[in-house]
Structures are given as C-alpha cells and as structure tokens.
Structure to design on (172 residues):
C-alpha cells in the first residue's frame, strides 16, 4: 500500500504537460483549400511557444501604438476567442488588398489574392488577428494607419508578420 501512495505523486509529475498556449484562433468553414490550410498553419503559430518568445522580445512600443511585444503577447494569449474568416473578392487580382477586418472582428480574405503560398496567407490571417485584438481590447491601439505598407514594418500588424514568418519556417 505504501509503495502505491509513493508512486502516485510520481505519476502525476510525469503526466503533467506544459500548459498549451491557446489564445485567439481563426476559423474558416468554407471550402477553399488554400484558406483551410492557411487556417491550420496560422492556428499552429498562435499556439506555438516560439511565437510568444519572439513577440515578448519586442520590448519597444510598436509604431502607431501604445503597446509593446509583451503586452501584445498577453492579448494573444488571454483572448480565448475564435475569429471567423469569411471571403470577398475585388474586381481584379491586381488589388493590393489581401484582407481586412470588420469592426465586429471578422476577417475577410480577398479570394482574388490567394494565388500565393499557403504560409503567406497564414501570415495575412495573423496580421488580421492583431486588428481583431485591437477591436476587442479597450484603451489600446495597434494598427498601422493607412493601408500603404511602406515604412510600417515597426507597427504591430507588420512586425508580427516577420515573427510569424520565422515561426512558420521552424515548423515544416
Ligand atoms: Zn492591416
């Protein structure tokens, strides 16, 4: 009997796993295979410890924002939300717009701009998740002003694209 009781805490110790990082996730229920695969990749990144490690290393406040990487990481992790992904299409595929987020926090992907690698689309989804968090979090701003990406690499949505890219490269 004694021995069993000794074993019990040991078993607990070995079965304990590090808590999974589940923050915001995206959900697409349509049939486009590129978006479906991009959704899986984006969700994988947003649960990945490296994503949070790289984000937290961004100690400066982002441009056009009052948050730094550590704060943004906490918003990502605290937000137990699922952002719906829907589609729209521009008239031509020459539009610069790949996606946008509505005021109620739904992500719209431009189906005319899906002729690119799945991980690229996943990065777009993660960029849009910053806008979703922005719309859900009071007292903070973390956008990028106009839609011209020039000179915006230090804003939260664009800085996170580089971070997401590094994480995606580390997970085949
Ligand atoms: Zn944006």
């Amino acid at each position: 009997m004694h021995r069993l009781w000794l074993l019990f805490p040991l078993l607990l110790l070995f079965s304990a796993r590090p808590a999974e990082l589940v923050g915001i996730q995206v959900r697409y229920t349509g049939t486009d295979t590129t978006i479906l695969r991009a959704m899986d990749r984006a969700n994988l990144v947003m649960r990945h410890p490296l994503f949070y490690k790289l984000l937290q290393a961004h100690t400066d406040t982002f441009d056009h924002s009052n948050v730094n990487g550590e704060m943004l990481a906490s918003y990502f992790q605290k937000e137990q939300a699922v952002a719906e992904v829907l589609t729209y299409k521009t008239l031509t595929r020459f539009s610069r717009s790949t996606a946008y987020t509505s005021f109620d926090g739904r992500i719209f992907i431009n189906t005319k701009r899906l002729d690119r690698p799945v991980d690229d689309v996943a990065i777009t989804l993660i960029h849009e998740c910053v806008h979703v968090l922005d719309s859900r979090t009071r007292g903070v701003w973390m956008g990028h002003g106009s839609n011209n990406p020039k000179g915006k690499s230090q804003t939260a949505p664009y800085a996170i694209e580089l971070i997401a890219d590094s994480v995606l490269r580390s997970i085949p």
Remarks:
- The first strand starts at residue 25 and ends at 27.
- The pocket of zinc ion is lined by residues 127, 131, 144, 157 (CB under 6 Å).
